User: Fold this.
Amino acid sequence: MHWRHVFKVVGVLTITLAFTMVIPLLVGLFYRDMSVRPFLMAIAATLAGGIALYLAGRVDRSAFVSQREGMAIVALGWVVAGFFGALPFYFEGEFPTFVDALFESVSGFTTTGSSVLTNIEAVSKGLLLWRSLIQWLGGMGIIVLGIAILPFLGVGGMQLYKAEVPTPVPDKLQPRIRDTAMILWKVYALITVAQVIALWAGGMSLYDAVNHAMTTLPTGGFSTKNASVAQFDSLYFDLVISFFMILAGINFSLHYQLLRGQTLAFWRDSECRFFLGAVLVLTLVVSFDIWRSVYATMGEALRYGLFQVVSIVTTTGYATADYEQWPAMSQLILLLCMFLGASAGSTGGGMKCLRIMLCFKFCYKELFSLIHPRAVTHVKIAGKTVPDDVLRSVLGFLALYMGLFGFCTVLLAGLGVDMVTAFGAVAATLGNIGPGFGMVGPVENFAQIPYLGKWLLIWCMLLGRLEIYTLIIFLVPEFYRK
Amino acid sequence: MKVIIIGAGEVGFHIASHLARENKDVLVIDKNADALRRVSDNLDVQILQGSGSSPVVLEEAGLRSAEIMLAVTNSDEANLVACLVANIVSPATKKLARVRNADYDTYHETFREQAPNIETVINPDIEVVKTIHGMMKVPGAVDVGEFAEGRIKFVGIYLDEHSPFNQVKLMDLPGQLGGIRPLIAAIMRDEELIIPRGKDQFLAGDLVYFITASEQLEETLAVFGKQEAPLKSVLIIGGGRIGYRLAALLEDEPFTCKIIEKDPAKCDKLAGRLNKAVVLCGDGSDQNLLAEENVGDMDAVVTLTDDEETNILASLLTRRMGVRKCITRISKFSYFPLMTTIGIEQVVSPRLSAINSILQHVRRGKVLSAMSIKGEQAEIMEAVAMETSAIVAKPLRSVGVPKGALVAAIMRQEHIIIPSGETTIQPDDRIIIVARREVIPQVEKILAVKLEFF
Assistant:
């Protein structure tokens, strides 16, 4: 294990992060609604931290980046980014304790969107932009961004890419990993700009449009308004945001194919069909359930049903309605959506449609072989056999995910949180969704969670974003053995 | 530039590794998922599982947009079929194939002109025999390469403790050498490649590479204390394809040649095809047989069996029995660094030969030949300076030759010029450049034709 190589890379990433802090600083100066000192302190501290890490490290020319180092770089990179990203929040004084600032920062980077802020609108515009910007950076991935813009990460980049990009089988769009990373970021930025224009054209202020686009595309869910998207109360905005949330929940390599002129790209991909089908069916079921019981007209039921289902299943976490007032069936469907998650290779969290599909197909194969004990069967996706090791790692992932979910729920309940809240909070943070149930529902926030509980949820968010393996590997003693 | 490589074996892997480091877009196709995993875990290239001779797979790989396709699987037939299919799918793509069967030898030209239109058929066996032959002609050297139709030699020698140049600085060298001026191109020291400057000094144990005109080779070797009597008798262990080729080549020259092969059927065949060479049936690592045949009095032993461990052992054994020079065939690249330590100086590898000859075809500009030196840390390239390339028509110091690269020699018509900072390269000069692996893309850039804006 070449720790010094790890430090070097993380150091460079941290220095890059310090430079991105200049953007909210400039915006803050433009709106003249915040003091400059906290941001300058944060930039100075981040730069100093980055340089210290850089100097502590050493690039070992001969050593190539193994899978282990890749995981260490990604895991450490995310922890360090979360820490330094919290500094502007902390120095600004909006958060009572450092753990609150850290919670907000990690919630941002991991694109969870859970907040501890009670009065968002009172916060300065510069700081709110930082809050949105870290979601945008975290969405496509800070490491993937690093691979795209820092040439020296090119060698061994595949190991880093595998450790950060949430998908069981990463596809390489281009022979060189740097080009792949660049394409993903370009597509991501392009769709973001499209959404800014769509929202702006509908009458949203440019500042709000930029912030909401930057938190929709990473399926983050931080809003600049206290009541989230509900505050605008506009059918047009609901539809535009729903549309872009769905786009963000689709594998970005499909967007790339679409932009390259393959018009049927979405249809040809079986996971994408599954995802869109699930959104459609669940929306109809929920809308039917809340029609008459909550909303008078079918139109209203469809509008709020669609937005809420899409918001949860893509793991964005915006709210236009308080779904805790909805009938039990709809609430449970939304809870299950938290586990389902978006497509592999998208910016969404959760378990991912692809894994659920593979799990179903695997179960069917097992049943089939009970009926035909001598049959030779394969699990196939789009006509191609899924290799056994991929299947095994998928099933292992699902088991770990459920196991961690149970474990963390019990721990959180042990800290004095009620059952529904514990369930909701862990599901929402592990799946990078945002709002949960009970005390942390769509109209409340995470400020009431006890001190230790916040630490626990911070880990849940990181575990969810890095798809468990990359982070949990650090708890395995074998990792440190020479 | 996009390059498609079919076959993720040792040759495919190493070519991919070379090209990926030079920022080319590489895609590797293989049927075997494990071999592909090794490629994707270690190299920044794209992979595709499937048969390289399937038109569907080739289409999927984007053959139409590829500039070069290399078919380097283990099977000659698979390589030829892949080229044939590729020729149908995308005739514009340049195709190179590795074909080892000697029966195809005389058809290489035909393959280029007709159906599969294979630009170059590479037979590593031929290249290896050429390399061995070159080494045998210069007995004192460890590594020999030829450039400019053999007029310039690129030679690597070990500096031992008794060498007069031990601890001599490079800048003091001309004083000690007198008339002849070999150019010290590179020094390998403890696995590290040094492109030397005036202040660097020689140390015992260095592998020193120099470039010299062929006529001055003997003199230069003598100065370094490496001149040795020419070899007269050779024992070849292993009568496979390469062993046979070498024996057949040596028959035409004043060599006494013996060849040992284990398999009686193969011996029978060899005896039928060879006229002067003595064919012996037996195990090359059998000490009795070797003693019986007076191996100690032979000048050189070349071990060429398919089993590299046997080759290594046989070389060590014969060396102990008093043979002056051993040339050992190795396939596994991971063994290369070990060889010096266990006392085997001269190593040949058909795979390395294949890689060398493929590399020169992939190079941009008018690169005539290329050779990669031990440990693959650097390459020597011979190229023609074109009128529009950046290297021409200004003094070398202002060309911007990257650090880690060295213009080692210039051939102008019949003259060989060892350049200095003031030398100006003229169009159609042939230049020999030594470059570290990292700077090869930059070297290619200064060699390539500049885009002309009119």
Summary: Chain B touches chain A through 14 residues (CB under 8 Å).
